[in-house]
Amino acid sequence: MTSRLFVATGRFLRVSAVAVGISLIPGAAAGTEHRFSDRYFMEIDPAAKQQLGESVFNEVATFFHAAEKAIETKDLKALMELYSDNYKDGDHDKKSAEKIWERIFSRFGAMTTQHTMQIANVSADRNMVVLRCSGLLLGAPEPSKGLITIDNWAMQDHVLVKESGKWKLIGTYGTERKRLWFDKPMHPLF
Fold it and tell me: What is the C-alpha to C-alpha distance for residues 141 and 182, in angstroms, rounded to an integer?
């Protein structure tokens, strides 16, 4: 299934949609599900479905849809539930990631993400997945102004683990670089 989305800049992007529809996010009731921003973009390499199997592929895609919903609705609690208690990104842990998201949510509106991902590694039991990702976190500093890039990343490895039957982000790894007003280099989720 292929869908087409327009980005804030008006550029046309071709998106290979993931196997699950947006309406498959757990907890979404008919007629009340979150409608994603028309700027939301996510592509997972179709070869990942063969590597992971359809069920795990769908679960991982649902994880990223849930993260996007939490970002777009500024639902800090829902977003932090996606982090493992053992989360690590350089000097950052889950608590410092939460402070960063609080700061981002307080300063930006109309937030959205864009991701392009491929499988870098998967454990034999399919309970750990490493996704190599490039993308953007966008937000509007003022309602009357357009979106700006809050964060961007290239070839970052996002490590997801299954804990108590739920996918959690346990870490993000890649080349460190300075980012917009963070105390330490970090990409907080994606």
Answer: 16
